[in-house]
Amino acid sequence: QVYLTESGGRPVQAGGTLRLSCAVSGVSHYVMGWFRQAPGKELEFVSAISRREGSYTEYGDAVKGRFAITRDNVKNMVYLQMNNLKPEDAAVYYCAAASVIGQRMSRADEYEHWGQGTQVTVSQ
């Protein structure tokens, strides 16, 4: 059984920082991604990291230069460091795992396992 459990979401002021965590069990060395969904909006790609050493990463345009994804394969954890948060970053953030990427890491339909999400709120 595969479990992805996100944590770290909380209210924060604009300009602040947060680190989200995703605890992974049941799979290893998968491609890992973060997506987010704000109320009334579609699911949005945030970031993804390649399997194993995580030498390759991708970021959505809205978060480039502010967010950083990392993974710790010993602890089976994936992290999303979020800096200089903006009100438009407020959303539920989901961790996802993909065994194989057919086309693009930014496509939500590439990921077969998803967590329940963690809420990030950013105030002015």
Given as residue ranges, the uncertain stretches (5+ residues, pLDDT < 50) are: none
Helix percent band: under 10%
* Strands, count: 11
- What is the terminal separation in angstroms? 40 Å
The percent range for strand residues is: over 45%
Number of helices in the DSSP assignment: 0
Structural class: mainly beta
How large, in whole angstroms, is the Cα Rg?
A: 13 Å
Characterize the main sheet.
7 strands, mixed
Shape: globular
Average pLDDT taken over every residue: 96
- Report the order of strands and helices: EEEEEEEEEEE
Question: What report would you give on this structure?
Answer:
- With 124 residues, this protein is mainly beta.
- It contains no helices and eleven strands.
- The strands form two sheets. Strands 2, 4, 5, 6, 9, 10 and 11 form a seven-stranded mixed β-sheet that branches. The protein has a four-stranded antiparallel β-sheet with strand order 1-3-8-7, with no helix packed on it.
- A hairpin with a 4-residue loop joins strand 7 and strand 8.
- The protein is globular and about 40 Å long.
Short structural description:
With 124 residues, the chain is mainly β. The protein has strands at 3-7, 11-13, 18-25, 31-37, 44-49, 57-59, 67-72, 77-82, 91-98, 113-114, 118-123.
Element layout with pairings:
Elements: E1 3-7, E2 11-13, E3 18-25, E4 31-37, E5 44-49, E6 57-59, E7 67-72, E8 77-82, E9 91-98, E10 113-114, E11 118-123
Parallel strand pairs: 2-11
Antiparallel strand pairs: 1-3, 3-8, 4-5, 4-9, 5-6, 7-8, 9-10, 9-11
